[in-house]
Amino acid sequence: MLAPEKARETTAEATAGIAAFMRGASLEATRPNAQDIEALAAALPAGTQIYLSAIPTRPQDDLIVQAAQVRAAGLEPVPHLAVRNFASADALRNFLDRLAGEAAVRRLLVIAGDRAEPAGPFRGALEAIDSGLIARSGITEIGISGYPDRHPRIAPHELDRLLAAKLEAAAQTGLAADIVTQFSLDATPIVAWVKRLRDQGVDHPVRIGLAGPTSLTTLMRFAKRCGVRASTQGLARNAGLLKHLLGAAAPDAIIRALIEANRDGDLGAIAPHLFSFGGIGATARWAAASAAGRIRLDRDGFAVEAG
Known about the structure:
Blueprint: H1 4-22, E1 26-29, H2 34-43, E2 49-52, H3 61-72, E3 76-82, H4 89-103, E4 107-111, H5 125-130, H6 133-136, E5 141-146, H7 156-172, E6 176-181, H8 187-199, E7 206-211, E8 214-215, H9 216-225, H10 229-237, E9 248-249, H11 252-261, E10 270-275, H12 280-291, E11 295-297, E12 302-304
Parallel strand pairs: 1-2, 1-10, 2-3, 3-4, 4-5, 5-6, 6-7, 7-10
Antiparallel strand pairs: 8-9, 11-12
Helix pairs in contact: 1-12, 2-12, 3-4
């Protein structure tokens, strides 16, 4: 058993490590309204990256409006660029020019999108990156999708090939790139996947997708919808990885496991990326409290304290 003074030092070190990790957090929002964006700005430091989901059933112009509102609030908009939605190269060029011109967007998350068949010439993110249109618009950075729990429709070896090709295309067109992962409910596959990337020589920063605080029912619904099957099985085996309080769940245990796994720098540059399944304001406040160190450690993770 640790002596009281040593225990206090260990607790202080762990709390400082969690706070430092969470200060690099980004958040993902789906169709944020003005009130949502106001809540984000009230809770988060200026310049925090806010990813804006592309909804196949909504007009592309919605993302331009949202990005401009996020920018006006002092935050950094990162729209999803769902390339299958664009009927032509000209349509994509116009959209990119408007994002850069009307919302000063500097960074995108480039994805294929949920459309079953492409509306135009872009079947996936690689074609859009390789076209040079993104770099031409003045955008300087992109995010590329990663899947620690695999993809429901794409084989692992094909995911590896596509990731390498996208990173190479970004470099060839003068774009900085990092990797943004689908959310996971278990630290084990995340750590194994990032270590495998590093062993392959991929040293790009990785933003690790995590489900922000939400109800367990909501979490399981989104896991099923997003095809996060391996993590759902991990949840059933490792209930201690989630915080249960009146059916609520938070990613605190995963965060502590990631920090421990990267104690010697084996995972390289990593940061949390929070999906706001439980509401944008609640996720932002939880992230802000964690980044400020307003937490109480427990055996597996931590609990956020009211501030």
